[in-house]
Amino acid sequence: MNTPLSLLYLLIFPGGLFLIAMGLVYEWADRKLVAQFQNRIGPRWFQPLADVIKLLAKEEIIPAGVSSGLFTALPIVAVAAALTAALNVPMFGLRPAYSFSGDLIVAMYLLSLMTLCTGLAGANTNDRFSLIGATRTLTQLFSYEAPFMLALLGPAIMAGSWNISEINAYAESHLWMVVTQPIGALVAIIGLMGKLELPPFDAPEAETEIVSGALTEYSGRGLALFHIGKDIELVIGLTMVSAFYFGGLSNPIYFIVKTVVLLLITAGLQSLFARLRIDQTVGMWWRLGALLALLQLLVLIVFKGFGL
Amino acid sequence: MMDTEKFLKSAEELLSPLGLPLSRSASFRLDAIVTTDTLVPAAKALMDGKWGYLSAITGLDIPAPAPAEGETPGENHMEVLYQFCNGPAVTTLRITVPYSKPVVPSICGIIPMATLYEREIIEMFGITMEGTPNTDKLLLPDDWPDGVFPLRKEFTGFGTKPAGVEGA
Amino acid sequence: MEAQTTTGKFVVPIGPQHPALKEPGHFEFTVDGEIVTGASVRLGFVHRGIEKGAEARNWVQNMYMVERVCGICSHVHATAYALGVEQLAGVTAPPRAQAIRELVAELERVHSHMLWLGVAAHEGGFDTLFMYSWRDRETVMDLLEAICGNRVHYSVNLLGGVKYDIDDKLADQLRKGVDFLEGRCEHYMKVVTTDETFVGRTKNVGKMSKEEAYELGSVGPTARASGVDRDIRIDAPYVSYEQFPVKLITDDAGDLQARFVVRIKELYESFRLIREILDHMPEGELTVKVPRRIPAGEAISRVEAPRGELLYFLKSNGTDIPDRVKIRTPSLCNWSSVVNYAVGHKLADMPMLLAGIDPCFSCNDRSVTIHRGGNVQNDWSWEQLRQYGIAYYR
User: Fold this and answer.
1) A194 lies in which domain range?
2) Can you spell out the DSSP letters for C14-29?
3) CB contact under 8 A, B54 and C364
4) Residue ranges per domain, chain C?
5) Nearest Cα to Cα of residue A236 among A115, A70, A64
6) I want to staple A278 with a disulfide (CB 3.0 to 4.6 A). Which of A203, C135, C246, C337 is the partner?
7) pLDDT higher for C94 or C13?
């Protein structure tokens, strides 16, 4: 791989600018859909972009009593992690920019890093709302991580590979795994929503309780970066779930159609429920999510083991 | 309105052992004049008799009428009205205190929820509620000057001239 | 902001500015992890001194001022005041006026309960219900506007009667609106009683027993959700509630869900009442004459506001200016309940519990003056205020 091409991959496509743009478009679609479900008009198409530009132009206030290095570094690390994870997934239905055996695990960890950064950012800030938000963020991290991972392991076991593009290829050539592994698909979709802290799993940033959760004290650039990071995570999450469960992503048209349909489902779920308390979120995950995912996995192992 | 009469009768029965002056100011109201000594027992009698609930504590400022020529001005008084409601009937315990000694015993020992009402009276009228659990400011700003009680008649605002502000 | 206080308690402040509060109030919750171990309340951020102001205005002017005690339940304030003054003056408004007062009061209750439903749902993170109930609430706002031309301060009352009449065309419009709203409320009832996540947030949360409710002096739907049979419309019927009686709605559960259920059932009851009043509207005059000077005396007037019992104490000294106007609003009664049952719950439940009593801060606070740090001047003329605003933003 030569250097200019790598740079291109990293900065323009499929990483970097393109991914950020995608993230903003998907954020808009999500907000618009939820608004429509709630009988509101919703934002105009450029609203997320306008938000980011506005935030980037604003002064970044570093509150007293925090480690300012950590305060500035965390959003950057978060975005970097999300961007790096994007290199491993079949973004836009194309071949992943960088692929190796076992990149599924790396991508998973990189996506968790984003949440971890949010949690640390909250814990780093000496603010009551942030501290509670951070506690909740990290609690939620531990509760959804296992089921979501287990849910993504299902297709990996079927494909017999830890490589995202190989799993993608397997998914393309076989029956959609949402049909063969419905429980796994459900857990994956809900896990994705938990990961992204979308309603009803938005206890970590429940504005009626703890203002903005871990990010309460963030402003300007830091906040913009966290938003971008979250948007990218949304795109990657949708890509991975549709690649694994919805028959793979072989070209851009499939990519758009499948991820948008998935977004439609998550937006619907977002507007259907009241916010769960953090104990309800955790309880639901461990009692239901993890068990269901394990059950699915067990079925798969038995299935594979008997060579059916 | 048979109930009203029945409720008022039972209130009279509850209060009569205390020997309070009772009067009917309206068809649905019973007024009992209490003193600092009998306020708490009277409230207790109503509560023990399960007679309704404390609906409000009203403060009244009654300045003495302007004195005629040559007379010494009479003393200003304040009145505190404890309004108990039971169905359509209202029983009022009225206690009058002079400006010189604005002290009323707290009834929070009997009715804990009265604390918010009492705090309002303390702030607005400057009446000391002896034994009330909490005297923090409830309604007025934290930097409200001491000794200024907005609902007393003598308070007519801080005036249009800024008081004690440099350059004004 | 110091996270840790010297006593080692972790205090979470909610308010005066907080996304959960649509009006300013200040609460301090002491938490241990997610569990609330103590609560305290501080009011007065929108204290405007209405009680004091009433002593400087005449009886008629006060009519319009007390309506501004609260933006949500403005009509009940005016009704309570008008009834008190009429009591002092020894006059009674004509039956048709009384019926129109009741009609508007019930429409206001519909508007207030629907508003509350939305706010409470929002506090629980259920924004869809919030948006839907507020969208449907527009219907009742439009109806109120059709009656009196205003969406918020209806100014229907006069001393001795009402200003606006209901004609047949308007009555039809009201019936149609009420039919639509009834259908919607049946839907909301289904949502609050069956939606899994919503029930998870409300069932057995913030439980208050009947005894506690008595002891804490709760009023209105908060008390009725705990099984306390306390409703001024029934206990001491005013305006035309004797002619068009309401049924008492109570629920024994005493939890947050019961507060939802009671309020929605009250909506059904209001719809029924509105139809009944429209069908049997008494004929006759709208007003009687009330003297400018009100005879000396004291009056207590109690009405059932959407949030509970509202008490007015009026004292007249025989002039055209009242000697004392005391307003005891229902929200003030209910604070002690919330401070009491908050303890032991999760922080996440706090916004919903606060909203559960349907607090109305401007009702509590009826304050005095513009008061800025130090003893700066207070009585600002409009022109001064304008100049200050211009200078501030320059």
Assistant:
1) 3-301
2) E-SS-TT-SS--EEEE
3) no
4) 50-328
5) A115
6) A203
7) C94
- Which superfamily does CATH assign the domain made up of C50-328 to? Cytochrome-c3 Hydrogenase, chain B (1.10.645.10)
**pLDDT tens per residue, range C341-393:** 777 777 767 777 766 666 666 555 543 333 333 333 444 455 555 565 566 55
CA distance C46 to chain B (A): 9
Q: What would the 3-class secondary structure string for B111-139 be?
A: CHHHHHHHHHHHHHHCCEEECCCCCCCCC
> Taking a C-beta distance cutoff of 8 angstroms, is the pair C27, C12 a contact?
no
Tell me what the mean pLDDT of segment A240-261 comes to.
80
- Which pLDDT score, from 0 to 100, does residue C369 have? 33
> For the segment A260-303, what is each residue's pLDDT rounded down to a tens digit?
888 888 888 888 777 777 777 777 777 777 787 788 778 877 87
CATH number of B2-64+76-103: 3.30.460.80
Q: Considering the entire predicted model, what is its pTM?
A: 0.80
C-alpha span between B126 and A245 (Å, rounded): 72
Residue of C nearest to B113 (CA): C216
Compute the C-alpha angle A111/A113/A114, nearest 5°: 70
Helices within A246-307 (DSSP H only) = 252-272, 278-284, 290-305
C132 to chain A: which residues are within 8 Å by CB? 38-39
Q: For position C1, what pLDDT does the model report? A: 36
Instruction: Determine the residue type at A25.
Output: V
Conformation bin of residue B7: beta by default, left when phi > 0, alpha when psi is -120 to 50: alpha
Domain borders along chain B are: 2-64+76-103
The token pair that represents C100 in the structure block: 């129109």
How many domains would you assign to chain A?
1
Lookup: tokens for C91:
């006059």
Q: Evaluate the omega torsion of the peptide bond into residue A155 and state whether it is cis, within 30 degrees of 0.
A: no
- Rounded Cα distance, A245 and A174, in Å: 11
- Residue of B140, B152, B156, B166 to mutate, testing the C interface (most C Cβ within 10 Å of its Cβ): B140
Cβ of residue A273 closer than 8 Å to a chain C Cβ: yes
In order of A183, B96, C167, C204, C279, the CA distances from B116 in angstroms are 55, 21, 45, 27, 44
Which residues in B131-144 are b (16+ Cβ under 10 Å) and which e?
Answer: ebeeeeebbbbeeb
Mean pLDDT score of chain A? 80
Mean pLDDT check: name the lowest of A70-84, A127-141, A170-184, A187-201: A170-184
Amino acid at C301: S
The values of phi and psi at residue B130, to 5°, are -70, 120
Q: Is the torsion defined by CA of B134, B135, B139, B141 positive or negative?
A: negative
**pLDDT per residue over C169-186, tens digit each?**
888 888 889 899 888 888
